[in-house]
Design goal:
heterodimer, A: 577 residues, 23 strands, B: alpha+beta, elongated, binds thiamine diphosphate, binds magnesium ion
Chain lengths: 577, 170
């Protein structure tokens, strides 16, 4: 049995956990670990340019693959730089293991150089955290960290490693545990028969059902089961921002995303439904509008692996707590197609179609195209959809461009749409695209961003050069912090406080070129499609496509604050209330 | 008011994870007591929280999710006994102290220290009883008090014990 030090044991444990990529950035407290990385070749370390990007890259990798993303940072500033990334993953329940260096044990609490209380700072934004107290416990802690990160409701786990725990001169026998013992932790399972029966009876009685599916269906790999249920019932399905791809967007039962910027028909359907079946979605405030006025006539069933998410915001008639795939299968085994009220559901689907015809997304767009002068951001996404055949991985930043991407790129598969839904972290797009591209080198990976967001992690253009990551960056350049501008237009009388850059934007084409990438600028609608095809076809080049879009475009529909799900603005001049 | 009992891993950081769930949401913990149990790898924590029932039920769910938390019991939902221990320091003579103890019923008191001009009395009672007793003390003579917080335990078969470890293979 080969002896290991704490540092080499840590890396070997990652290898035993089948980690191929470790995103990180070195520094004093982590140097023993970095030396151990140098001396092996199973785990490849990816050097980013900022620790936030390391976490986002691991996060993108995790979202696209379903595996655990892994990060290594040093103590103090390395750890604090990682915090935004950890919080981003926490809000979206993404499995990560983040290893942070820490000052030596005897220095903890002395305000030593680069000391930060990582356990304390990260506590509210991790699923769990460990402070290594002896080198020998490292393999077991790594095992626990991976299991905790990945099972149940996934989430980030921090392992804080004081420098002396990785001392290369302290050797011990290494063994990676096959299993672990935990007193309090168990993964979610099936639901009791009686609850499943109740759910089935509500589903069978429904005349106006909506299946409202979120990220939990993607994380729980339950898309197939959801499709079966939708088919049996012929029920309309809406996805949350996090759930896009959980149900195919081109499927005839799909009624679009719901919520703050959801489609008119999805929000109306939520308001008028007589049964809402929430699947792996958590009644987030962006999808309910005012909870007091939320879908008052609907019975509600909530399926979630997290007991704590059930009845946190909305009271439900039946709760199903456990694994989405298992519970959906329980339902599929019990539901009897003969008992489903097909005639009523047909009428209901027609009602929804009518809504789509009056105020659906494309209807509004046709109107605008008629007298357009500039490129509309929506058209850029439609063009991107065409050029990639709807098959690309799309990561996004945060703002109007994110909502346009969510609305107009039709995701047919889970794990293809990668965005920071919960925390809404600007700067997420490019680094997460890197993580995806590492995992899927042969697939198109596109970051849809804005000129505001991209500048928050633009340094990663350098990482992309170093590792040869030909991602595509589509910058919907509206010369403003557009989403903030939209709110200032709507709620602050057009007083544009601190959202303009006053001619300080870089020349993105030259910027991309200075890193050795390809830059493109598109201003004319007549060349959009051609340039987009050209951009996507450059398979081995990172292309930064700077598209000048109409700066006055707003994202619609938009739920009216404090209202119910039917109270929306559907354009600058039209509202439903 | 809710009286909550928690069995948790006796680990650094475990307490702050539990307390953090409350402070993070702006809820105040009225009283808190924590100590290892007969199994030194486990601590038992008892707390009193004055929040609405819907908030408490949400907090209980979140508590159950904390990895270091092994078991949670809402003593307010079951039949349970509870009591509180307090130590008070008064500037009085021993004779006066004995008088106070005699009139303290239903609180049970006992002199545990007498030094210089000061007497310390140990008190046991329900938390209302201890409250009432403290209110009745002469302010000029009453110097200090420390209270254990409300301790409690379910009666009969309402156990709060650790299930055996689950082995997770993976
Ligand atoms: C780190 C961070 N800071 C601030 C915000 C608030 N915010 C949300 S959208 C937005 C504007 C984003 O501008 P841009 O990236 O250009 O996108 P656009 O809305 O113009 O498409 C801002 C500032 C945020 N989400 N994240
Ligand atoms: Mg912008």
């Amino acid at each position: 049995m080969k002896k290991e030090s704490g540092g080499s044991a840590l890396i070997r444990a990652l290898a035993d956990e089948n980690v191929d990529l470790l995103f990180g950035y070195p520094g004093g407290a982590a140097l023993h670990i970095y030396d151990a990385i140098y001396q092996q070749d199973k785990v490849q370390h990816i050097l980013v340019r900022h620790e936030q990007a390391a976490v986002h890259a691991a996060d993108g990798y995790a979202r696209a693959t379903g595996k655990v993303g892994t990060v290594l940072v040093t103590s103090g500033p390395g750890a604090t730089n990682a915090i935004t990334g950890i919080a981003t993953a926490y809000m979206d329940s993404i499995p990560l293991v983040v290893i942070s260096g820490q000052v030596a044990s005897h220095l903890i609490g002395t305000d030593a150089f680069q000391e930060t209380d990582m356990m304390g700072i990260s506590r509210p934004i991790v699923k769990h955290s460990f402070l290594i107290q002896s080198p020998e416990e490292i393999p077991e802690v790594v095992k626990k960290a991976f299991i905790i990160a990945k099972t149940g409701k996934p989430g980030p786990v921090v392992i804080d490693v004081p420098k002396d725990m990785t001392d290369p001169n302290h050797l011990f026998d290494y063994q990676y545990p096959k299993d672990i013992k935990m007193r309090s932790y168990s993964a979610p399972s099936e639901e009791e028969e009686s609850n499943v029966d109740e759910a089935v009876s509500l589903l069978e009685k429904a005349k106006k059902p909506v299946l409202y599916a979120g990220g939990g269906i993607i994380q729980g790999n339950a898309s197939e089961e959801l499709k079966k249920l939708a088919k049996i019932m012929n029920a309309p399905v809406t996805n949350t921002l996090m759930g896009l791809g959980a149900f195919p967007a081109t499927h005839e039962n799909f009624i679009g995303m719901l919520g703050m910027h959801g489609t008119y028909e999805a929000n109306m359907a939520m308001h008028e439904a007589d049964l809402i079946f929430a699947l792996g979605s958590r009644f987030d405030d962006r999808t309910t509008n005012n909870p007091k006025k939320y879908s008052l006539n609907a019975k509600k069933i909530h399926l979630d692996c997290d007991y704590g998410s059930i009845e946190k915001i909305i009271n439900v008639d039946v709760s199903l707590n456990g694994d989405a795939k298992k519970i959906l299968n329980q339902i599929l085994n019990k539901i009897d197609p003969k008992n489903i009220d097909k005639a009523s559901i047909d009428l209901w689907n027609n009602e929804i179609l009518n809504w789509r015809e009056t105020h659906g997304l494309n209807h509004d767009l046709l109107d605008k195209k008629f007298h357009q002068k500039q490129i509309l951001p929506q058209q850029v996404i439609q063009s991107l959809y065409k050029s990639t055949n709807g098959k690309a991985f799309i990561t996004s930043d945060v703002g109007q461009h994110q909502m346009f991407a969510a609305q107009y790129y039709k995701f047919d598969e889970p794990r293809k749409w990668i965005n920071s839904g919960g925390l809404g972290t600007m700067g997420f797009g490019l680094p997460s695209a890197m993580g995806v591209k590492f995992a899927f080198p042969d697939e198109d990976v596109v970051c849809v961003t804005g000129e505001g967001s991209i500048q928050m992690c633009i340094q990663e253009l350098s990482t992309c050069m170093q590792y040869g990551l030909p991602v595509k960056i589509i910058n919907l350049n509206n010369r403003a912090l557009g989403m903030v501008k939209q709110w200032q237009d709507m709620q602050y009388g057009g007083r544009y406080s601190s959202i303009l850059y006053e001619d300080s934007l870089p020349d993105f084409v030259k910027l991309a070129e200075s890193y050795g990438h390809v830059g493109m600028k598109v201003e004319d609608i007549s060349e959009l499609e051609e340039r987009m095809d050209e951009c996507i076809s450059m398979k081995d080049k990172l292309v930064f496509m700077d598209v000048y879009v109409d700066p006055d475009e707003h994202v619609y529909p938009m739920l009216e604050a404090g209202g119910n799900m039917s109270e929306m603005r559907v354009s600058k001049t039209k509202k439903t209330f | 008011m809710s009286h909550i009992s928690i069995l948790m891993e006796n680990q650094p950081g475990a307490l702050s994870r539990v307390v953090g769930l409350f402070s993070q949401r702006g809820y105040n913990i009225d009283s808190l007591s924590v100590a290892p149990t007969n199994d030194s790898s486990l601590s038992r924590l008892t707390m009193v929280v004055k929040e609405e029932e819907s908030i408490i039920s949400q907090i209980l769910k979140q508590l159950n999710k904390v990895i270091d938390v092994v078991e949670v019991q809402n003593l307010s939902d079951i039949e349970s006994v509870s009591l509180e221990i307090a130590i008070v320091k008064l500037k009085i003579t021993e004779k006066e102290a004995k008088k106070i103890i005699e009139s303290a019923f239903p609180v049970v008191g006992e002199i545990i220290n007498h030094k210089d001009a000061f007497v310390m009395i140990k008190l046991i009672g329900s938390n209302h009883e201890v409250d009432d007793f403290l209110l009745s003390l002469n302010k000029q003579k009453f110097l200090e008090v420390t209270r254990s917080g409300l301790l409690g335990m379910g009666t009969g078969e309402n156990f709060l014990i650790s299930e055996s470890e689950t082995t997770i293979e993976y």
